[in-house]
Each structure stands twice: as structure tokens, then as C-alpha cells.
Amino acid sequence: MNKAIVNALAVTLTALVMTGCSSAMEGLQSQMEVPTLENQANRVAIGMTIVRENNIMAFKMPISSDALWPVMVSSDINETENKKIIDLLMDGPYFSTVQYTTLVQRDMLGSSASMNMLGGYGNIAAMVLNQKVKPLTKRAIQKIMIFYGEDKTNWPNVFNFDSTLDNFVEFKDGNLAEIEAVDGDIYETIGEALISLTPIDLQKDLTTARDEMLSQYVEVASIKSKKGELQTTLKKDLAKTQKMKDKKTDYTPLSASEKLSIEKEIVLVDTQISEAESIADEKKSIYFELLDTATIALESDINIDDENYVKLARNVNIVSNEIQTGATQAYTAFGLASANIISSNIILKFPQELQSLAVAKARVPANLQDKYNERLARLSRNAIYLLPNILIGTYYANQQSTIAEKYETITNIILLAHQAKIDQELAAKEEAAKLEKEKLEKAKEAETQAK
User: Fold this and answer.
1) Among positive and negative, which fits the CA dihedral 260, 274, 229, 36?
2) What is the pLDDT of residue 264?
3) Which residues pair with 187 in a beta bridge?
4) H-helix or E-strand spanning residue 246
């Protein structure tokens, strides 16, 4: 590779690190790391954490005109928070032991294509990009601290995949901190708050349409989880069959008829997914059409003189924007994991990955052996449910984004109208002041002439 190009790339990488563009940084870092299933599982776990945090913001956090949490979740991570997040994570099974396994895994499993292409400059790029705690992880943990407090024992276990495959958008453990508004009307969700901003005669129909749409989304996700389980069964069989051929384990592979049966079931499930998604799209269209009607009504009659009304719209707008950003970040995590799994044949190489971790175990200090064992156990569990999490997470991230975008559009109308009113009032005051000034000047001029 041309040295000038590589030097330019190094400068670009450094700039991205300094500016903290989370999604772009995640993509670049994924190309520099060792291509392991564990790295993809951790990435997907963070993607699911973001989806669940979006769900908390949309459905679990009471909101009002004076609620402070919308500003908190949308704020950048400061230096104090950054250090606190890293310190809290470093005690976990993965982060406390990864430094003892990276070199062994790079030797046994190789590097990504991008790392190889950089040749001798790969180490420079790795130093720039190979942060233990990646930007998306920091952002996700920042919200965990807001929603669950700084006591780590109260946090949900964000790196453990859900083995029950039900209600993926909910954390199964941890206790949400109580965040309440001081004054003003309190709404249980931003959806309810958004509907309260619309004309009263539309609110009942909007509530019904929204509930039906959300219920259908749950149905789609449930069917997608079934497909993920079936795909995982086939992938596990391939990996175990390869391990059996290498005489490293005893395993009875799936028969041709069993595999054919699973493949036929996947085709059937695909049809069910298509039908369920079609119904979900219809439900969303109905809801969005009603929102469009509400938007038209708002444009001609907005209660911008009510301070609490405008403040509530601003809070809903902030949260909607943050959900969109989070959905994009989650979508990035799922997309990168999927691409890396396909391009590096990661699932088929999983037995080799486990072997590399077994070799690296000797390098782990005695006081960290229990954490290392916990890391290995978690990886074995997560490997089974990696694909279902990607399928369901991608679907939910997309839906969260489209709904939040709609909410942001509607609240923008209110905020723009309010700003226009402020600008108009300011212009009127300036004009009045100008006229008063001219009046005074004429009076002085007349007084001077009279003398």
C-alpha cells in the first residue's frame, strides 16, 4: 500500500478517535480486531442494550414538561463519566482478562482483512483504534448509569444474551431508578405525551392505533426469534461436525432428513414473518396517517402560548432524537456483526476460537481465573443465541427509528412555531424600540429648533 495513503489513513483514524464519532469508530475498530465470535457477540449485546434502552426511554420513563432525564440521556460523556464507566467495566469477565488473550488469538486466528492490508502500519492503527471499551459500549453504559444508578450490583447483565427468546426489548434483571417530574402533567410514555400534544378529538383514535401497531411488532419479533433458533441449530451442527472430523469431540451430526426438515421449517417461518410484517406495516400506516392528520391540524392551531405545552414538546423532541441516534448505533452494531460473521466465517471457526482461549488460559493470573471461566461460560451461552438477537434487534431498531422520527417531526412543528412567535415578538419589540428612538430624536430636534 502507498505509504502516503497509509499515513493519511492514520491521520483520519486519529481524527475519528478525537471527535468520537461512535458509529464510524465502531466500524473501523471492528476491522482492526481479531475476527472472533466473542467480539461479535459483545457487539450484538451492546446493540441489544441500546435497543432495550430505547425501549426504556419510549415506554418505561415517565415524562413531563419539567422532566430532567431527557437532557441527561442526550448529553455527551464528560471526562469524569468516561473514567467512571471504564473503571466500572474493567472489573467484568471480559474486560479484566482480554489483554491476556488478544495476542494469542491474533496468532492463532489471524487478523481482519483491513489489518492485513495495512501491513506494517497495522500496529499503529491498532494502537489508535483498539480501545478496550469501544464508543458504543461507553454510550450504552452511560444510559445504564442514568436509568439504574451507579451501583453496579443493581445493573442488568448487559453482556448476557436472553436464552428464553421472549420479549427481547426488556432487561430481565436490574431495578430502574425512580425518576419523577416535579411539576406539570406526567405521562407514562413519550407516545402518550406526544398524543397529548395533538387535538383532543384525535387522541382516542391515535391511542388505539398506536397500541395495535406495537402489539403487532411483538408478534413479528416472536416469529423472527423462531427463525433465529432454527438457523442457530444448523450453524451449531456445522461447527460441531467440523470439530468431530478433527477428532476433538464425539458428536452425532444431524441427518440429511433432519437438516432438510429444518430448512423447510425456515422457509415456512419466512412466509409467516412476511405476513406478520405486512400486517405490522398496515398498522403503522394507520397510525402514521392519523399522526399526519394531527400534524395538519397542529399547523393551523398550536397552543404555543402554554409554556408547559411547549416544554413537553421539547422533551419529547429530545427523547425522539436520542432514540433515533440509538437505533442507528444499534443497527450499526448488528450490521457489523453480521458482516464480520459472514466475511470471516466466524461460526465455522468457533471451535478454533475456543481452542485459542484454552491456550490463553495459562497466561491469565490466578486471581482472574474465576472471571476467565465466567467469560468462557458466557461465550458458550451467547454463541447459541447470537443470530436470534441480530434478527430481532435489527427489526426493533428499525421500527424504533421510524416511529421516533415521526414524533420528532411533529414536535418540530410545535417548536418551530414557538420559535417563530418568539422571533416575531422580538422583531416587534425591536421595531417599537426603533420607533420610540425616532420619536425621541424628533422631539429633541424640535426642541433644538424651538430654542
Assistant:
1) positive
2) 94
3) 63
4) none
Confidence band, pLDDT 50/70/90 cuts, at residue 164: low
> Using CA of residue 58, residue 60, residue 65, residue 69, what is the dihedral sign?
negative
Check: CB of residue 146 under 8 Å from CB of residue 57: no
- The whole-angstrom separation of Cα 244 and Cα 170 is 37
**Distant-in-sequence, close-in-space partners of 240: CB < 8 Å, separation ≥ 6:** 249, 251, 253, 351
Give the closest residue to 335 by CA, choosing from 244, 247, 398: 398
Q: What is the pLDDT of residues 316-340, one digit of tens each?
A: 999 999 999 999 999 989 999 999 8
Give the other-Cβ count within 10 Å of 368's Cβ: 14
What the block records as the C-alpha cell of 35 is 475476527
212-263 pLDDT, tens digit each: 998 998 888 888 878 878 887 887 787 777 767 666 667 788 899 999 999 9
Q: From its phi and psi, is residue 412 left (phi > 0), alpha (psi between -120 and 50) or beta?
A: alpha
Residue 63, strand partner residues: 187
Displacement of CA 442 from its chain's centroid (Å): 63
What does each C-alpha distance from 168 to 182, 219, 283, 404 come to in angstroms?
32, 12, 21, 19
What pLDDT score does 187 carry?
92
Cβ 371 vs Cβ 94: under 8 Å = no
| C-alpha–C-alpha distance, residues 150 and 144, integer Å | 8
Residue 16 to residue 22: CA distance in whole angstroms:
9
The rounded distance, in Å, linking the Cα atoms of 17 and 7 is 15
Contact between 147 and 58 under an 8 Å Cβ cutoff? The reply is no
